[in-house]
Amino acid sequence: MSVHKEVKKVTTHQLQEMKRRGEKIAMLTAYDYTMAKIIDHAGIDVILVGDSASNVMAGHETTLPITLDQMIYHASSVIRAIDRALVVVDLPFGSYQGNSKEALTSAIKIMKESGAHAVKLEGGREIKDSIERILSAGIPVMGHLGLTPQSIYKFGTYTVRAKEEEEAQRLLADAKILEECGCFALVLEKIPAKLAAQVAKSISIPVIGIGAGGGVDGQVLVTHDMLGMTHEFSPRFLRRYLNLYESMTGAFEQYIKDVKSKDFPNENEQY
Ligand code: KIV
Q: Which of 109, 126, 249, 267 is most buried, most CB within 10 Å of its CB?
């Protein structure tokens, strides 16, 4: 008899059940096979192949330059590593804002070529048609409101969003629109905790926050930030679980020293 146990994959339906039972959802970003494998084995619920790859992987200042093909490259590397997590992929800037047909074509390309399980789009009522068209093809959609980095040049800064009543009301209404459209979950980025909790209470789909406080249904962080690999980025909401920048620098320095001093390789490290 085989002792191999099938790993139960996380589904969009399960995330909604988790919200109903009050179990928090844990989500992290990944852009490559090795990191995704570690995160998946640790038991994460959702992996986001975020367009933050544009910053973290490629060194761009914003998320705008990353292309659809580059997102597909990252997403397919992640998918090859996964046993359990639900994998959501960002539709990059310029691949869905033009019209709903273009949005559907982009979403289908991601699903077909990467094997991802769902897509994420930034925006509310202004992209409703695109979201509905993608959903009509049977592709699950995660929404994203609050700080939407693809619109950085419209807002001019990465500061907290929806602090004023008018913007808060608009965000609440947009969250309802996304729920009614059929989005399976919603990311809220960098908004007041009180507003985020109000959104999470007023809609039935899971709300996953980043810089949105603890009153939501789950949390997401950029993995390279929470591991302390990106030491120059320190927003208040970021909890660092390691200081990998420091420990990796130490390891690299030691390696350089060992090579220069001929300590590496020693007799046991050769053939
Ligand atoms: O691209 C990304 O990593 C994201 C998260 C910050 C939510 O959208």
A: 109
**pLDDT > 80? residue 2:** no
Tell me the average pLDDT across 36-46.
98
Q: How far apart are CA 16 and CA 138, in angstroms?
A: 17
Locus of tokens 């289908």? 108
CATH class belonging to 12-240? alpha beta
For the chain, the structural domain boundaries read 12-240, 243-271
Calculate how far, in angstroms, residue 213's C-alpha sits from the geometric centre of ligand 1.
16
- What distance in Å separates the CA atoms of residue 62 and residue 236, rounded to the nearest whole number? 20
pTM over 0.90? The answer is yes
Q: How far is the CA of 165 from the centre of ligand 1 (A)?
A: 25
Mutate to test the pocket of ligand 1, among 39, 210, 225 (most ligand atoms within 8 A of CB): 210
Using 50, 70 and 90 to split pLDDT, how confident is the model at 4? low
